Amino acid sequence: MRIKMNSFTDLDIIHKISEASMAGVKIEMIIRGICCLLPGLENATENITIRSIVGRYLEHSRIYCFGDEKDIKIYIASADCMTRNTEKRVEIGCPIQDEKLKNQILEYFTLLMSDNIKARELCSDGHYKQIISQEAPLNSQEECMHLAIQITQEIKKSEKGLFQHIIKSLRKGAYAP
Fold first, then answer.
1. Alpha-carbon distance 54 to 108, whole Å?
2. Residue 37 in contact with residue 9, Cβ under 8 Å?
3. CA angle 158, 164, 165 (to 5 degrees)
4. In the sheet where 128-130 sits, what is the strand order?
5. What are the respective helix, strand and coil percentages of the chain, to the nearest 5?
6. 98: number of CA atoms within 13 Å, CB side?
7. In 14-79, where do the E strands start and end?
8. Would strands 62-66 and 48-53 be described as parallel, antiparallel, or unpaired?
9. Does position 106 have pLDDT exceeding 90, yes or no?
């Protein structure tokens, strides 16, 4: 199970996540802000890893992934798991059905979990510790920014090519995209 949200305070959901951990489910969570679940407690939450990433950007994506890679169910949603959201508001979530989008979301989540610059791991005593890694330094938000710039440049190039194609076609007297 993989979950990304900004805050996690709903006790009913905390209990269900803890039950899943006790049943042996490995759970990775990215929770930027308030988190009322303590990971790593023996016979309760020892299968849960929680990281917080606070960096240049205030991210608001909520991602919920259930199952293994083969039969994974992925949802995006408008709400964090906070009591005010789950009991007093109308929030929306939707499944991701497109395989390409599923893969992009999983790659994004993996990138976040690999962050060893801005990420902090929540310990069972409620304190956050810096990620110590032998891997090359990785700032997930910087990586996402560079990827967005690269994609934008590629789109601009293809738009320019498309625009030039349209102009040539119009000059010939027929537009054929």
1. 16
2. no
3. 90
4. 93-96, 73-77, 62-66, 2-5, 27-31, 48-53, 119-122, 128-130
5. 40, 20, 40
6. 5
7. 27-31, 48-53, 62-66, 73-77
8. unpaired
9. yes
Report the predicted TM-score, pTM, of the whole model to 2 decimal places. Answer: 0.83
d(CA 18, CA 24): 10
Alpha-carbon gap, residue 129 to 126, rounded angstroms: 10
Which residues, 6 or more positions from 174, have their beta carbon under 8 angstroms from its beta carbon?
none
pLDDT digits (tens, 9 = 90+) for 16-70: 999 999 999 999 999 999 999 999 999 999 999 999 999 888 878 899 999 987 8
Measure Cα distances from 137 to 20, 30, 105 in Å: 32, 19, 22
Residue where the block lists tokens 């929540």: 122
